[in-house]
Design brief:
By secondary structure, the protein is an all-alpha fold. It has a single domain, classed as Amino acid/polyamine transporter I (Up-down Bundle), CATH 1.20.1740.10. It has 21 helices and two strands. The protein has a two-stranded antiparallel sheet with strand order 1-2. Helix 7 packs across helix 8, helix 7 runs antiparallel to helix 19 and helix 17 packs across helix 18. It starts with a helix and ends in a 7-residue tail after the last helix.
């Protein structure tokens, strides 16, 4: 079987899902109303609340949610074989991840662009909000730590990527000023911006920047602090928008090369329900694939930055549901890069390339070679695209961590609700984990907490749907499954870290804390969910 069928069949199924299931959700479940004013207009402040055209916001949202998750996750989960991974990516994206992202985005738009924590407060209660904010902040610290390590590793391994990434930041500021301060039309600014984007790629290859691992971690921490406190229009939104073209180009070129070259799948369709590297298929498959099928981080992006920029409610299906399906395609492409390898080749390439990120870059280089593009250039391009989106997720996650911290302390210790203090605390905790350099140990707990956060967000959306008088079965059914898989995964991770020959108490106790917070929040929200009451 050709690996190209993974992309072709996936694209067909995703198109059908968007056309039919997406419309069903839009009209019958979430009841989208284009006439409703959005928070971006009602609360516009020029910092966080800024109306954005649908293509621009799609670029920001997609770039923010993509990151390394849909690439590292499927490649790591391939130890179970390519078939269960592919099935979960497709079914998860359509019936779990897409529903989760669409629902959390629209729910936030209907709640003045406020976070899922505020939605929990209104529909569940104060205790529920406190538990959710604590859980989401811990999960975001893990996100920042994991992606910081992955960015650092790429900068060290491919110095050209470091130079290009720094130039991207300067370009983004110029793009933001051109569009929002000097009223340059979006189309013209985009053409110029994309040309300069690829110029930055060339300059990076010509002038690579070499620093130590510790040096890069410290620079990354400074960058995400600055990105978190700046107005969204000057760096975050334009950089995400421009970066999205880089990922589009990578996915299109990789997919076309895959279809033209038609390399066969050599990895076994299924290996075993238990592997030494991956653990038990249930629950670890559904945790390891992470953002390739569903991600709680997406709900924080949807209700943290994206909902504050939605121009019209009719854009929410395109941005929420559509972006998740495109991310599913990215995950299938990542799976194809490992699917063309034998079991032995998979293990050897992982070791040779320094992990899933390197394997993905090598696979993209191989696919692009079928288009006549040199393998070396294609590999560098793949690494650059992956790293650009890791950075995008990083600065978005830091900003969301800041929001959660501020929201928690606003009514308790107002002095700590300052955006600079909130950002410093978030960056400090994440930096401490990142300096350990042990992404392999952090990833499973990140995956479990991230997927459990998705279950909690689905819980919040399910309760909100009761107030609309809508059926919440499309959110309740995936919610129950995510709770079963992720709570089991966190318990296993807590055990593995606390009872190991060399215990890691920081990660083990973090897993325990996440389990306890989640259980209490489920109990709190369950009282409302299973005993419906009218809400004004």
């Amino acid at each position: 079987m050709s690996a190209a069928w993974l992309i072709v069949l996936g694209a067909i199924l995703f198109f059908i899902a968007y056309r039919y299931y997406g419309v069903f959700l839009e009209k019958q479940i979430f009841k989208v109303n284009p006439d409703n004013p959005t928070p971006a207009h009602a609360l516009e402040d020029g910092i966080d609340y800024v109306p954005a055209k649908a293509p621009v916001l799609f670029g920001h949202h997609f770039a923010s949610i993509a990151g390394a998750g849909p690439i590292v996750g499927p490649i790591s989960a391939a130890v179970f074989g390519w078939l269960p991974v592919a099935l979960w990516i497709v079914l998860g994206s359509i019936f779990v991840g897409g529903v989760h992202d669409f629902g959390s985005l629209l729910a936030s738009v209907r709640h003045e662009g406020k976070s899922i924590g505020q939605i929990v407060l209104k529909n569940v209660g104060k205790r529920g909000q406190v538990l959710f904010l604590l859980f989401s902040w811990l999960a975001l610290v893990l996100v920042v730590a994991v992606f910081s390590i992955l960015v650092m590793q790429t900068f060290v391994a491919v110095p050209a990527v470091a130079t290009t990434s720094l130039l991207f930041m300067v370009l983004a500021v110029g793009f933001g000023l051109a569009v929002y301060r000097y009223a340059v039309p979006l189309r013209q600014a985009t053409v110029i911006g994309v040309i300069l984007l690829f110029l930055c790629v060339w300059l990076g290859i010509e002038f690579p920047l070499v620093l130590s691992s510790t040096g890069w971690i410290l620079i990354i921490m400074v960058y995400i602090f600055v990105a978190s406190v700046l107005p969204v229009w000057i760096l975050l939104q334009p950089r995400d928008y421009l970066n999205s073209f880089l990922l589009y180009a990578t996915v299109i070129a990789g997919a076309l090369g895959l279809i033209i070259g038609r390399p066969p799948i050599q990895l076994p369709a299924f290996t075993s329900f238990y592997t030494k590297a991956g653990g038990y298929l249930f629950p670890m498959l559904f945790i390891t694939v992470a953002c390739g099928a569903v991600s709680g981080f997406h709900s924080l992006v949807s209700s943290g930055t994206s909902s504050k920029q939605v121009d019209n409610e009719r854009d929410t299906k395109f941005i929420g549901y559509g972006a998740m399906l495109v991310e599913g395609l990215v995950a299938l492409l990542a799976l194809a890069t490992v699917g063309i390898l034998t079991t032995q080749g998979y293990a050897e390439t992982l070791q040779k390339m320094g992990g899933p990120s390197g394997l993905y870059a090598a696979g993209i280089g191989h696919f692009m070679s079928y288009l006549g593009i040199p393998v070396t250039f294609g590999t560098t391009f793949g690494a650059l695209a992956l790293n650009a989106f890791c950075l995008t997720s990083l600065d978005t996650a830091t900003r969301l961590g800041r929001y959660a911290f501020e929201e928690f302390f606003t009514d308790r210790v107002p002095a700590l609700a300052n955006r600079y203090i909130a950002t410093i605390v978030t960056v400090a905790f994440a930096g401490a984990l990142a300096l350990s350099g042990q992404w392999q140990k952090i990833w499973p707990i990140f995956g479990a907490s991230n997927q459990l956060l998705a279950g909690l967000s689905l819980l919040a959306v399910s309760v909100w749907l009761l107030t609309l008088g809508s059926s919440n079965k499309p959110t309740v059914i995936p919610m129950v499954f995510m709770f079963c898989a992720t709570l089991a995964g966190l318990v296993l991770q807590a055990k593995a870290n606390l009872i190991a020959a060399k215990p890691n108490y920081l990660l083990g106790l973090t897993a325990v804390a996440l389990v306890i917070l989640a259980i209490f929040l489920i109990i709190e929200a369950g009282r409302v969910l299973f005993k419906p009451k009218s809400v004004c």
